[in-house]
Amino acid sequence: CEAGTERKILRSEMEMPGGPRRASHATLRTLSRAGAAAVLLLLVAGPLVAPVAAYNCTSDTACAYAGCNDRSADGEVVAASCEGGTCVSGNSTHNEACSEPCKAGTYSNGTWDEVHCVTCPAGKYSETVGASDSSTCTSCDAGTSSETTGAGNATTCTPCAAGKYSAAAASECTQCAGGSKSAADSLSCESCTAGTSSSADGSSCTVCDAGTSSAAVASECATCPAGMSSAAEASECASCEDGSVSTAGGLCVACEAGSYEAGFTECTPCPAGSYSEDGGANDSSTCTLCNGTYSATVGANASSTCTSTCPASTFTVEATRACAACTTTVCAVGKYRGACETADGVCKDCTNAKPANADYSSAGSPFDENTCGHACKIGYGGTTCAACEAGKKKAATGAAECTDCLANTFSAAAAAAACTACPANSEAASGSALCYCSVGFNGATPAACVACSNCTSKVTFTATLEMTVAEFTDAKKESYIAGVAQALSITTGSLTITSVTDTSTRRRLLAASVAVETTATVSSAKAKAVAEAATSAKLKSALGPLGFTVGAVTAAATVEVKTTQASVINTTPETTPSGAPASLPALALSWGAATALLLAAAHWR
Q1: 571 contact partners, CB below 8 Å, separation of at least 6
Q2: By C-alpha distance, which of 486, 427, 488, 500 is closest to 459?
């Protein structure tokens, strides 16, 4: 066969009358070196069978083993093919022939085991068909790249985009480093110069804006700090000139008239009482004091801001010729801020009117007026801050009224802040100024109440109420007991209604009335005070608000309860209605006799 081609031996040429003969792979490989034609003659012993029209393989895979020898499914050599037992360079074995040339983008060097053509690597291409060497794979030019393997032409070599570069035979383009750039189709990157920085994609170097700067090969421009600045495309920042200032990243700007530069970062205004007519100043000495006049303007830029007097709510400061704002903060409790004219207002004591038993409770309102609020002291109450009476108390400041002491507590003196608990064996009704020994106890003082066998007394009196017996219901009786207990400063449990008598007369002009006999069981020490309190005035004051109309009240009789006998201790009567005797003799009377006496007196009237 000619170079670059091969002759395929048909299977029919291998058959003989006694059956096919097969030589081992090793034998054929050895004999191939002596000449394929001689081997073929030795193998055939007998007349050749006429060739068939096609080469029939048992399967496609059976015809695709390595080398140029067709093989059967068990790996035995079926027939030698190709010159010298090897594929010709530039060809490869396929199912039916060794003479198929390598496609463009591939090559074959003709080795024994060559089955497939070798593809050119990425970054290279080959336009040669039937190439027999890797040198036919041509490198893509620098500035281009190809990711394709087995490329058959140069069109797969694409130019690198701007911001990327490549050497020859590159499979991909490389991104330029920060601070450098490249145009499209570049084989290298170019460093950015000072005053510029690379763009994000590396395609160009961008000029730094004013107020920023950069050294060479910079990926970004740095912002100038406050007090410094730069022109566009600057390699470094410079300090502002005297009299000018800048913010970070800003331009240097001259200070305006009425201010001066101190530190290049901000302009300081001239203080009140001075002015500056020149811009670009760099020292406080450029601020001129008002001459004999005053100014409240901070940062004044003309002498016209100086006036002869300070405006309202300001005061003059002679040393600086300034008009300073008056202080408006509220003073402490009991004080107000004085006038602000030639000097700032100071806090003064309030002197506005208040009750004698009150203290100032707030500062002046408004802050500069002598109008402090006041509150009653502890133990004093009401709008006039009057002292709490004995039996009352007030524990907080303010205008609230005094309140009664609770039951079994007392306040003996006026203006009490709190009530005191009664000592042991003593008691007191609400609103009491003193405590009394409890029933069954006696003593010189409430603090010395001791048990006794004959120290309990019963104080009995009769009150006339304008109502019928039917109207004097149980509810009315409870209300009556509560009112009497309040009037006598004793507990309701100490009181008993012993009888209720209809005292209405037959005269039509007189209203219906009942006589209510009431007994208070108290200690002997307290009996006198109870008897003295059982008066018409006291009962009217207590029972009137409860809906009772109280008429006459008999004199209270006190009986001391002893273990042996009862005796009358006191029978001092109250003044009876007009026309009746002013008093009765002190003698022991039964309540029936006393009632009869009262009825006789009424009849006599």
Answers
A1: 555, 556, 557, 558, 584, 586, 587, 588, 589
A2: 488
Please say whether the beta carbons of 197 and 216 come within 8 A: no
Give the span between the Cα atoms of 234 and 178, in whole angstroms.
19
CA distance 140 to 172: 11
Cα–Cα distance, 556 to 551 (Å, whole number) = 15
pLDDT given for residue 457 in this prediction: 87
Share of the chain above pLDDT 70, in %: 74
pLDDT at 240: 94
Structure tokens at 454: 């004959």
- Assess contact for 471 and 457: CB atoms under 8 A: no
Q: How far, in Å, CA of 362 to CA of 373, rounded?
A: 5
* Cβ atoms 120, 151 nearer than 8 A: yes
Closest CA to 301 of 317, 316, 282, 286: 286
* Lowest-pLDDT range of 85-89, 138-142, 218-222, 567-571: 567-571
Long-range contacts, 472-479 (Cβ 8 Å, 24+): 472/500, 472/514, 472/516, 479/546, 479/547, 479/548
DSSP secondary structure, 497-512, as one string: EEEEEE---S-TTSPP
Q: Is 530 helix (H, G, I), strand (E, B) or coil?
A: helix
Within 13 A of 36's CA, how many CA atoms are on the CB side? 16
Could you tell me the two tokens for 3? 């170079």
The β-bridge partners of 457 are: 522, 560
Q: How many CB atoms within 10 Å of residue 605?
A: 10
> What are the two backbone dihedrals, phi and then psi, of residue 461, each rounded to the nearest 5 degrees?
-150, 165
Identify the helix (H) or strand (E) that includes residue 159. strand 158-159
Tell me whether the omega of the peptide bond preceding residue 366 falls within 30 degrees of 0, making it cis. yes
Phi/psi at 580 (5° precision): -95, 165
Give the pLDDT mean for 236-265: 93
Q: CB–CB of 39/33 below 8 Å? A: no
Residue 272 half-sphere exposure toward CB, CA atoms < 13 A: 16
- Residue 401 token pair: 């009224």
What burial letters (b/e) apply to 539-548, b meaning 16+ CB within 10 Å? bbebbeeeeb
The predicted-structure confidence for 460-479, as pLDDT tens digits, reads as follows 999 999 999 999 999 999 99
Token pair in block for residue 186: 């570049």
How deeply is 38 buried, as exposed, middle or buried, from its count of CB atoms within 10 A (0-12, 13-18, 19+)?
exposed
Which residue from 74, 117, 119, 115 is spatially nearest to 95, judged by alpha carbons?
115
pLDDT in tens, 553-562: 998 887 766 5
337 residue type, one letter: R
What global pTM score does this model have? 0.40
Contact indicator for 131, 90 with CB cutoff of 8 Å:
yes
The residues, ordered by sequence, that sit 6+ positions from 433 with a Cβ below 8 Å of its Cβ are 389, 390, 391, 410, 411, 412
Angstrom CA distances, 178 to 40, 192, 211, 568, 578, stand at 71, 9, 21, 123, 124
What is the tens place of the pLDDT at every residue in 76-89?
444 433 333 334 55
| Residue 138 in tokens | 């041509």
d(CA 152, CA 79): 34
Q: Say how far apart CA 174 and CA 163 lie, in whole Å.
A: 9
